[in-house]
Amino acid sequence: MAMKDYKQFLLLLAAAVSVGFVCIVFVLQWVLYFKEGLAWDGGLAEFNWHPVLIVTGFIFMQGIAIVVYRLPWTWKCSKLMMKLIHAGLNILAFVFAAISLVAVFDFHNGANIPNMYSLHSWVGLAAVILYGLQIALGLCVYLVPFTPGHLRAAFMPLHVYSGLFIFSSVIATALMGITEKLIFGLKDPKYKDSPPEATFVNILGLLILVFGALILWIATRPSWKRPTEQLLISQNTNGGGAAAPKGGTALSAYGSTGRDEPDANCDARKRSCKQEESEQKSSV
Ligand code: HEM
Ligand code: HEM
Protein backbone atom coordinates (compact mmCIF):
# COMPACT_ATOMS: atom_id res chain seq x y z
CA MET A 1 0.00 0.00 0.00
CA ALA A 2 1.39 3.40 -0.98
CA MET A 3 2.33 5.92 1.67
CA LYS A 4 2.00 9.69 1.21
CA ASP A 5 5.40 11.50 1.21
CA TYR A 6 7.21 8.15 1.45
CA LYS A 7 10.65 9.67 0.70
CA GLN A 8 10.23 12.26 3.43
CA PHE A 9 9.24 9.50 5.86
CA LEU A 10 12.31 7.42 4.94
CA LEU A 11 14.59 10.42 5.33
CA LEU A 12 13.25 11.28 8.79
CA LEU A 13 13.29 7.66 9.92
CA ALA A 14 16.90 7.23 8.73
CA ALA A 15 17.80 10.48 10.54
CA ALA A 16 16.12 9.30 13.76
CA VAL A 17 17.81 5.87 13.71
CA SER A 18 21.22 7.39 12.89
CA VAL A 19 20.96 10.06 15.60
CA GLY A 20 19.81 7.34 18.03
CA PHE A 21 22.86 5.21 17.20
CA VAL A 22 25.20 8.19 17.61
CA CYS A 23 23.62 8.84 21.06
CA ILE A 24 24.46 5.26 22.08
CA VAL A 25 28.05 5.62 20.79
CA PHE A 26 28.38 8.95 22.65
CA VAL A 27 27.12 7.61 25.98
CA LEU A 28 29.46 4.59 25.71
CA GLN A 29 32.38 6.86 24.81
CA TRP A 30 31.49 9.07 27.80
CA VAL A 31 31.52 6.30 30.41
CA LEU A 32 34.36 4.22 28.89
CA TYR A 33 36.75 7.00 27.85
CA PHE A 34 35.98 10.00 30.08
CA LYS A 35 34.62 8.16 33.17
CA GLU A 36 35.34 5.02 35.16
CA GLY A 37 34.04 2.40 32.70
CA LEU A 38 31.35 -0.20 33.46
CA ALA A 39 31.24 -2.71 36.34
CA TRP A 40 28.78 -3.98 38.97
CA ASP A 41 30.88 -3.13 42.05
CA GLY A 42 28.76 -0.62 44.00
CA GLY A 43 31.04 2.23 42.87
CA LEU A 44 31.07 4.87 40.12
CA ALA A 45 31.50 2.24 37.40
CA GLU A 46 28.17 0.77 38.54
CA PHE A 47 26.52 4.19 38.42
CA ASN A 48 27.64 4.41 34.77
CA TRP A 49 25.17 1.67 33.82
CA HIS A 50 22.48 4.24 34.66
CA PRO A 51 23.03 6.59 31.66
CA VAL A 52 24.05 3.71 29.35
CA LEU A 53 20.89 1.65 29.94
CA ILE A 54 18.68 4.73 29.88
CA VAL A 55 19.98 5.95 26.51
CA THR A 56 19.98 2.50 24.83
CA GLY A 57 16.78 1.18 26.39
CA PHE A 58 14.53 3.88 27.74
CA ILE A 59 15.25 6.41 24.98
CA PHE A 60 16.33 4.59 21.80
CA MET A 61 14.27 1.40 22.16
CA GLN A 62 11.19 3.25 23.34
CA GLY A 63 11.49 5.66 20.38
CA ILE A 64 11.61 2.76 17.92
CA ALA A 65 8.69 1.02 19.70
CA ILE A 66 6.61 4.19 19.27
CA VAL A 67 7.13 4.45 15.48
CA VAL A 68 7.08 0.72 14.71
CA TYR A 69 3.43 0.75 13.51
CA ARG A 70 4.34 3.44 10.98
CA LEU A 71 6.89 1.43 9.01
CA PRO A 72 5.03 0.81 5.72
CA TRP A 73 6.85 -2.48 5.06
CA THR A 74 5.22 -3.87 8.24
CA TRP A 75 1.70 -3.05 7.03
CA LYS A 76 1.47 -6.50 5.44
CA CYS A 77 2.13 -8.09 8.85
CA SER A 78 -0.90 -8.94 10.97
CA LYS A 79 -2.04 -6.43 13.59
CA LEU A 80 -1.44 -9.03 16.31
CA MET A 81 2.18 -9.46 15.20
CA MET A 82 2.69 -5.65 15.29
CA LYS A 83 1.11 -5.43 18.73
CA LEU A 84 3.51 -8.11 19.98
CA ILE A 85 6.50 -6.24 18.53
CA HIS A 86 5.29 -2.86 19.93
CA ALA A 87 4.59 -4.35 23.37
CA GLY A 88 7.78 -6.48 23.34
CA LEU A 89 10.04 -3.50 22.57
CA ASN A 90 8.31 -1.42 25.25
CA ILE A 91 8.68 -4.19 27.84
CA LEU A 92 12.38 -4.56 26.96
CA ALA A 93 12.83 -0.78 27.32
CA PHE A 94 11.14 -1.00 30.74
CA VAL A 95 13.53 -3.77 31.85
CA PHE A 96 16.54 -1.62 30.81
CA ALA A 97 15.11 1.34 32.76
CA ALA A 98 14.47 -0.80 35.84
CA ILE A 99 18.05 -2.20 35.84
CA SER A 100 19.39 1.34 35.40
CA LEU A 101 17.48 2.39 38.53
CA VAL A 102 18.86 -0.56 40.50
CA ALA A 103 22.36 0.57 39.48
CA VAL A 104 21.89 4.16 40.70
CA PHE A 105 20.08 3.21 43.95
CA ASP A 106 22.74 0.58 44.71
CA PHE A 107 25.49 3.13 44.08
CA HIS A 108 23.77 5.76 46.28
CA ASN A 109 23.23 3.30 49.14
CA GLY A 110 26.84 2.07 48.95
CA ALA A 111 28.22 5.63 49.01
CA ASN A 112 25.75 6.90 51.65
CA ILE A 113 24.21 9.42 49.24
CA PRO A 114 20.56 10.26 50.03
CA ASN A 115 17.90 8.86 47.69
CA MET A 116 15.25 10.76 45.75
CA TYR A 117 16.24 14.33 46.65
CA SER A 118 16.47 15.84 43.14
CA LEU A 119 13.85 16.99 40.62
CA HIS A 120 15.62 14.64 38.17
CA SER A 121 14.92 11.65 40.40
CA TRP A 122 11.29 12.66 41.04
CA VAL A 123 10.39 13.16 37.38
CA GLY A 124 12.46 10.09 36.42
CA LEU A 125 10.83 7.72 38.90
CA ALA A 126 7.36 9.06 37.98
CA ALA A 127 8.12 8.40 34.29
CA VAL A 128 9.21 4.80 35.00
CA ILE A 129 6.09 4.13 37.11
CA LEU A 130 3.77 5.65 34.47
CA TYR A 131 5.57 3.65 31.79
CA GLY A 132 4.91 0.44 33.73
CA LEU A 133 1.26 1.41 34.07
CA GLN A 134 1.03 2.21 30.34
CA ILE A 135 2.39 -1.28 29.56
CA ALA A 136 -0.04 -2.98 31.98
CA LEU A 137 -3.04 -1.07 30.59
CA GLY A 138 -1.85 -1.54 26.99
CA LEU A 139 -1.65 -5.31 27.51
CA CYS A 140 -5.08 -5.50 29.19
CA VAL A 141 -6.84 -3.31 26.65
CA TYR A 142 -5.17 -4.33 23.36
CA LEU A 143 -3.84 -7.86 23.83
CA VAL A 144 -6.48 -9.53 26.02
CA PRO A 145 -8.82 -10.87 23.30
CA PHE A 146 -12.14 -10.28 25.11
CA THR A 147 -11.72 -6.54 25.72
CA PRO A 148 -14.69 -4.96 23.89
CA GLY A 149 -13.95 -3.00 20.70
CA HIS A 150 -15.61 0.19 21.97
CA LEU A 151 -13.33 0.21 25.04
CA ARG A 152 -10.26 -0.25 22.85
CA ALA A 153 -11.37 2.62 20.62
CA ALA A 154 -12.26 4.93 23.51
CA PHE A 155 -8.91 4.31 25.23
CA MET A 156 -6.73 4.87 22.15
CA PRO A 157 -6.44 8.71 22.28
CA LEU A 158 -5.41 8.45 25.96
CA HIS A 159 -2.93 5.65 25.14
CA VAL A 160 -1.30 7.72 22.39
CA TYR A 161 -1.27 10.93 24.45
CA SER A 162 0.22 9.30 27.55
CA GLY A 163 2.76 7.38 25.44
CA LEU A 164 4.03 10.60 23.85
CA PHE A 165 3.89 12.45 27.19
CA ILE A 166 5.97 9.79 28.97
CA PHE A 167 8.49 9.69 26.11
CA SER A 168 8.89 13.51 26.28
CA SER A 169 9.30 13.35 30.07
CA VAL A 170 12.04 10.74 29.66
CA ILE A 171 13.94 13.06 27.29
CA ALA A 172 13.57 15.96 29.78
CA THR A 173 14.73 13.72 32.66
CA ALA A 174 17.79 12.61 30.71
CA LEU A 175 18.79 16.24 30.07
CA MET A 176 18.46 17.04 33.79
CA GLY A 177 20.49 13.92 34.71
CA ILE A 178 23.26 14.80 32.24
CA THR A 179 23.54 18.34 33.63
CA GLU A 180 23.61 17.07 37.23
CA LYS A 181 26.29 14.51 36.47
CA LEU A 182 28.50 17.08 34.73
CA ILE A 183 28.14 19.52 37.64
CA PHE A 184 28.89 16.78 40.24
CA GLY A 185 31.56 14.97 38.27
CA LEU A 186 33.75 17.74 36.85
CA LYS A 187 36.04 19.09 39.58
CA ASP A 188 39.28 20.28 38.00
CA PRO A 189 38.63 21.84 35.52
CA LYS A 190 35.04 22.56 36.49
CA TYR A 191 31.92 22.41 34.25
CA LYS A 192 31.94 26.20 33.83
CA ASP A 193 35.47 26.02 32.39
CA SER A 194 34.16 23.90 29.47
CA PRO A 195 36.59 20.94 29.51
CA PRO A 196 36.34 18.57 26.50
CA GLU A 197 34.10 16.14 28.48
CA ALA A 198 31.57 18.93 29.15
CA THR A 199 31.36 19.93 25.48
CA PHE A 200 31.15 16.27 24.39
CA VAL A 201 28.34 15.45 26.81
CA ASN A 202 26.46 18.70 26.06
CA ILE A 203 26.43 17.50 22.43
CA LEU A 204 25.05 14.14 23.63
CA GLY A 205 22.22 16.09 25.30
CA LEU A 206 21.50 17.96 22.07
CA LEU A 207 21.47 14.71 20.09
CA ILE A 208 19.00 13.15 22.56
CA LEU A 209 16.78 16.20 22.08
CA VAL A 210 16.98 15.88 18.27
CA PHE A 211 16.17 12.14 18.50
CA GLY A 212 13.10 12.97 20.60
CA ALA A 213 12.00 15.69 18.18
CA LEU A 214 12.29 13.34 15.17
CA ILE A 215 10.35 10.51 16.85
CA LEU A 216 7.59 12.89 17.97
CA TRP A 217 7.32 14.33 14.45
CA ILE A 218 7.09 10.89 12.81
CA ALA A 219 4.57 9.66 15.40
CA THR A 220 2.25 12.65 15.00
CA ARG A 221 1.92 12.82 11.16
CA PRO A 222 -1.66 11.72 10.42
CA SER A 223 -0.80 10.62 6.87
CA TRP A 224 1.86 8.16 8.06
CA LYS A 225 -0.45 6.19 10.33
CA ARG A 226 -0.92 2.46 9.79
CA PRO A 227 -4.12 2.10 7.73
CA THR A 228 -7.08 0.17 9.16
CA GLU A 229 -7.07 -3.58 8.64
CA GLN A 230 -10.20 -3.22 6.50
CA LEU A 231 -8.47 -0.80 4.14
CA LEU A 232 -5.39 -3.01 3.95
CA ILE A 233 -7.51 -6.07 3.18
CA SER A 234 -9.56 -4.26 0.52
CA GLN A 235 -6.35 -2.87 -1.02
CA ASN A 236 -4.92 -6.38 -1.18
CA THR A 237 -8.04 -7.92 -2.67
CA ASN A 238 -8.27 -5.05 -5.21
CA GLY A 239 -4.78 -5.65 -6.53
CA GLY A 240 -2.87 -3.93 -3.73
CA GLY A 241 -1.22 -1.23 -5.84
CA ALA A 242 -3.76 1.58 -5.50
CA ALA A 243 -2.74 4.78 -3.76
CA ALA A 244 -4.18 5.52 -0.32
CA PRO A 245 -7.12 7.93 -0.29
CA LYS A 246 -5.98 11.45 0.55
CA GLY A 247 -7.01 12.40 4.12
CA GLY A 248 -9.27 9.36 4.23
CA THR A 249 -10.43 7.87 7.49
CA ALA A 250 -7.74 5.24 7.55
CA LEU A 251 -5.00 7.79 7.35
CA SER A 252 -6.51 10.47 9.57
CA ALA A 253 -5.23 11.44 13.01
CA TYR A 254 -6.51 10.11 16.30
CA GLY A 255 -9.19 12.55 17.36
CA SER A 256 -12.82 13.33 16.77
CA THR A 257 -12.60 12.14 13.19
CA GLY A 258 -10.02 9.44 13.80
CA ARG A 259 -10.67 5.77 13.37
CA ASP A 260 -10.28 4.98 17.05
CA GLU A 261 -13.04 7.17 18.29
CA PRO A 262 -16.63 7.69 17.10
CA ASP A 263 -16.91 10.53 14.57
CA ALA A 264 -19.01 13.32 16.07
CA ASN A 265 -19.63 15.07 12.75
CA CYS A 266 -21.02 12.30 10.66
CA ASP A 267 -24.76 13.02 10.79
CA ALA A 268 -24.98 13.36 7.04
CA ARG A 269 -23.29 10.06 6.49
CA LYS A 270 -24.85 8.29 9.46
CA ARG A 271 -25.31 4.91 7.92
CA SER A 272 -21.93 4.50 6.28
CA CYS A 273 -20.32 6.19 9.25
CA LYS A 274 -21.85 3.68 11.67
CA GLN A 275 -20.56 0.83 9.59
CA GLU A 276 -17.12 2.46 9.40
CA GLU A 277 -17.03 2.94 13.17
CA SER A 278 -17.73 -0.69 13.91
CA GLU A 279 -15.01 -1.67 11.44
CA GLN A 280 -12.61 0.72 13.10
CA LYS A 281 -13.31 -0.66 16.54
CA SER A 282 -12.68 -4.18 15.49
CA SER A 283 -9.27 -3.26 14.10
CA VAL A 284 -7.69 -1.40 17.06
C1 HEM B 1 19.66 9.59 39.95
C2 HEM B 1 16.02 8.20 37.11
C3 HEM B 1 18.55 9.49 33.18
C4 HEM B 1 22.15 10.96 36.03
C5 HEM B 1 18.47 9.10 39.52
C6 HEM B 1 17.42 8.62 40.38
C7 HEM B 1 16.39 8.25 39.59
C8 HEM B 1 16.79 8.46 38.23
C9 HEM B 1 15.05 7.70 40.05
C10 HEM B 1 17.43 8.60 41.92
C11 HEM B 1 18.23 7.49 42.47
C12 HEM B 1 18.33 7.57 43.98
O1 HEM B 1 17.73 8.46 44.57
O2 HEM B 1 19.06 6.74 44.58
C13 HEM B 1 16.38 8.47 35.81
C14 HEM B 1 15.54 8.26 34.67
C15 HEM B 1 16.22 8.65 33.58
C16 HEM B 1 17.54 9.08 34.02
C17 HEM B 1 14.14 7.71 34.67
C18 HEM B 1 15.68 8.62 32.19
C19 HEM B 1 15.83 9.54 31.35
C20 HEM B 1 19.77 9.92 33.61
C21 HEM B 1 20.87 10.27 32.74
C22 HEM B 1 21.88 10.68 33.53
C23 HEM B 1 21.42 10.60 34.92
C24 HEM B 1 20.89 10.16 31.21
C25 HEM B 1 23.23 11.11 33.07
C26 HEM B 1 24.30 10.73 33.65
C27 HEM B 1 21.75 10.78 37.33
C28 HEM B 1 22.51 11.21 38.50
C29 HEM B 1 21.80 10.79 39.62
C30 HEM B 1 20.61 10.12 39.15
C31 HEM B 1 23.82 11.98 38.47
C32 HEM B 1 22.22 11.00 41.10
C33 HEM B 1 21.70 12.29 41.60
C34 HEM B 1 20.21 12.32 41.80
O3 HEM B 1 19.66 11.48 42.54
O4 HEM B 1 19.59 13.17 41.18
N1 HEM B 1 18.06 8.98 38.21
N2 HEM B 1 17.58 8.97 35.39
N3 HEM B 1 20.14 10.11 34.92
N4 HEM B 1 20.61 10.13 37.76
FE1 HEM B 1 19.12 9.55 36.58
C1 HEM C 1 -0.25 2.88 19.51
C2 HEM C 1 2.88 4.25 22.95
C3 HEM C 1 2.42 -0.06 25.13
C4 HEM C 1 -0.95 -1.28 21.85
C5 HEM C 1 0.66 3.61 20.26
C6 HEM C 1 1.14 4.92 19.90
C7 HEM C 1 1.99 5.32 20.87
C8 HEM C 1 2.09 4.25 21.83
C9 HEM C 1 2.73 6.64 20.95
C10 HEM C 1 0.74 5.69 18.63
C11 HEM C 1 1.49 5.09 17.46
C12 HEM C 1 1.05 5.63 16.11
O1 HEM C 1 0.22 6.53 16.05
O2 HEM C 1 1.57 5.12 15.10
C13 HEM C 1 3.04 3.19 23.81
C14 HEM C 1 3.97 3.16 24.94
C15 HEM C 1 3.82 1.95 25.55
C16 HEM C 1 2.81 1.21 24.82
C17 HEM C 1 4.92 4.29 25.34
C18 HEM C 1 4.53 1.40 26.76
C19 HEM C 1 4.81 2.08 27.82
C20 HEM C 1 1.47 -0.77 24.44
C21 HEM C 1 1.07 -2.14 24.73
C22 HEM C 1 0.14 -2.47 23.81
C23 HEM C 1 -0.08 -1.34 22.92
C24 HEM C 1 1.65 -3.01 25.86
C25 HEM C 1 -0.54 -3.81 23.72
C26 HEM C 1 -0.61 -4.45 22.63
C27 HEM C 1 -1.05 -0.26 20.94
C28 HEM C 1 -1.96 -0.26 19.79
C29 HEM C 1 -1.73 0.96 19.12
C30 HEM C 1 -0.73 1.66 19.88
C31 HEM C 1 -2.93 -1.36 19.39
C32 HEM C 1 -2.47 1.43 17.84
C33 HEM C 1 -1.59 1.24 16.63
C34 HEM C 1 -2.24 1.74 15.35
O3 HEM C 1 -2.18 2.92 15.06
O4 HEM C 1 -2.77 0.94 14.60
N1 HEM C 1 1.26 3.22 21.43
N2 HEM C 1 2.38 2.00 23.77
N3 HEM C 1 0.75 -0.33 23.33
N4 HEM C 1 -0.34 0.91 20.96
FE1 HEM C 1 1.00 1.46 22.37
TrEMBL record:
Which catalysed reactions does the entry list for this protein? Cu(2+)(out) + L-ascorbate(in) = Cu(+)(out) + monodehydro-L-ascorbate radical(in) + H(+); Fe(3+)(out) + L-ascorbate(in) = monodehydro-L-ascorbate radical(in) + Fe(2+)(out) + H(+); monodehydro-L-ascorbate radical(out) + L-ascorbate(in) = monodehydro-L-ascorbate radical(in) + L-ascorbate(out)
Q: Where in the cell is it found?
A: Apical cell membrane
Note whether Isomerase occurs among the keywords.
Answer: no
Q: Which residue numbers delimit the Cytochrome b561 domain?
A: 15-220
Q: Which cofactor does it need?
A: heme b
Q: Which residues form a coiled coil?
A: none
Per the UniProt entry, the Enzyme Commission number(s) are 7.2.1.3
Q: Where is this region: Disordered?
A: 236-284
Any one Pfam family here would be Cytochrom_B561
Q: How does it sit in the membrane?
A: Multi-pass membrane protein
> Listed GO molecular functions?
metal ion binding; transmembrane ascorbate ferrireductase activity
Name the enzyme group at the top EC level.
translocase
> Could you tell me the superkingdom of the organism this chain comes from?
Eukaryota
Q: Which UniProt keywords apply?
A: Cell membrane, Electron transport, Heme, Iron, Membrane, Metal-binding, Oxidoreductase, Translocase, Transmembrane, Transmembrane helix, Transport
Question: Which residue spans traverse the membrane?
Answer: 9-32, 52-72, 84-105, 125-146, 158-178, 198-219
Q: Where is the composition biased (Basic and acidic residues)?
A: 258-284
Q: Carries keyword Metal-binding?
A: yes
Q: Which GO terms describe its cellular component?
A: apical plasma membrane; lysosomal membrane
Subunit arrangement? Homodimer.
Q: Which PANTHER family match?
A: CYTOCHROME B561-RELATED (PTHR10106), PLASMA MEMBRANE ASCORBATE-DEPENDENT REDUCTASE CYBRD1 (PTHR10106:SF12)
Provide the protein name: Plasma membrane ascorbate-dependent reductase CYBRD1
Please report the organism this UniProt entry assigns to the protein.
Answer: Megalops atlanticus (Tarpon)
